[in-house]
Design a protein that fits this description.
- The protein is α+β, with helices and mostly antiparallel strands.
- It is built from 10 helices and 15 strands.
């Protein structure tokens, strides 16, 4: 095949690479070759670039387009981080958290009479106003999403929905009978598996019949939400969406994830999410940590 034919063939893929008469190629946003349109993921996944609080969020396709066109305002979107502002948000310099803005105070969404989660969200919005929502585009400093209050129970327990994923997050769990606020991993995950050739943990003994998330039922909500222990990736996605700036933080040494640490001896450790700064550590399954649950709502 001649070089000119190769170049022509490459230019037919101009939705992926740009061509000019000298054969030079310029990278453009990834597209669907069949339609010439931007792939949905690049249009819907928000860019993680640091930005001024309140500045319009960019998705990755927009960042690519603006960067290649030299149209990315450096004072607003920072390819080069500002050491005074661009941290993980713990100190609140470039982020307004729900706590700093004021937490919801009026009980809402807390009876069995609501027809679906959306009705609970509407009730919370009516009773708590701005305190029933957290808007990442407005109060965050990167690609955070929007969160809506599903219920405030007994003036203490908050349940929030991550609008971007549609999943619901519980408050930190407390066993109402024993008063326990920390649980071993087997209880948190709700597994009662016996030791195997590769796993040394006897979760049947460790769990002692307790299944913190999979058996979680708030009396005020009943079975309208199906709960489970969040995975490592659930926490990572929710962290990107702004979880640390919305949910109340745990008061001890991290939150269990459902994800085992692959390299741990006897598969005896799991990953732990720290809502103070969004980092992950690992811990022995038999140690106790606090728990938040993630749920699928019945809309």
């Amino acid at each position: 095949m001649k070089a000119s034919q190769i170049l022509i063939g490459m230019c037919l893929l101009a939705t992926i690479v740009g061509c000019n008469d000298t054969g030079n190629q310029t990278r453009k946003p990834v597209t669907d070759v069949s339609t010439g349109e931007l792939e949905p993921d690049s249009q819907t996944i928000m860019s993680g670039i640091h930005r001024e609080k309140g500045a319009t969020q960019l998705n990755y396709a927009e960042e690519i387009t603006k960067t290649l066109a030299n149209d990315l305002p450096g004072a607003i979107y920072r390819p080069v981080p500002d050491i005074e502002k661009d941290d993980e948000g713990t100190d609140g310099v470039n982020v307004n958290t729900r706590s700093s803005l004021g937490r919801p105070k009026t009980v809402c969404g807390a009876t069995g009479t609501f027809n679906g989660i959306n009705a609970r969200i509407a009730d919370c919005a009516q009773k708590n106003g701005a305190a029933a929502i957290w808007e990442g585009p407005r109060y965050g400093s990167s690609g955070e999403g929007t969160w809506q209050l599903v219920a405030l129970l007994d003036s203490t327990k908050e349940i929030w929905m991550d609008v971007r994923t549609g999943m619901v997050w519980s408050d930190t769990i407390k066993n109402m009978e024993s008063g326990a606020i920390e649980f071993n991993w087997c209880k948190a995950a709700g597994t009662e598996t016996l030791p195997t050739p590769t796993s040394s943990i006897d979760c049947n003994a460790e769990a002692a019949g307790e299944k913190v998330c999979t058996n979680l039922i708030y009396d005020e909500i009943g079975t309208q939400i199906e709960w489970r222990l969040p995975t490592r990736n659930d926490f990572l996605q929710a962290d990107l969406d702004g979880l640390r700036f919305v949910l109340k933080k745990e008061t001890s040494n991290g939150l269990w994830t459902a994800t085992i640490k692959a390299g741990s001896t006897g598969r005896s450790e799991a990953w732990i999410y720290q809502s103070s700064n969004g980092t992950l550590i690992s811990g022995e399954l038999t140690t106790t940590r606090q728990v938040k649950c993630i749920g699928t709502p019945r809309l």
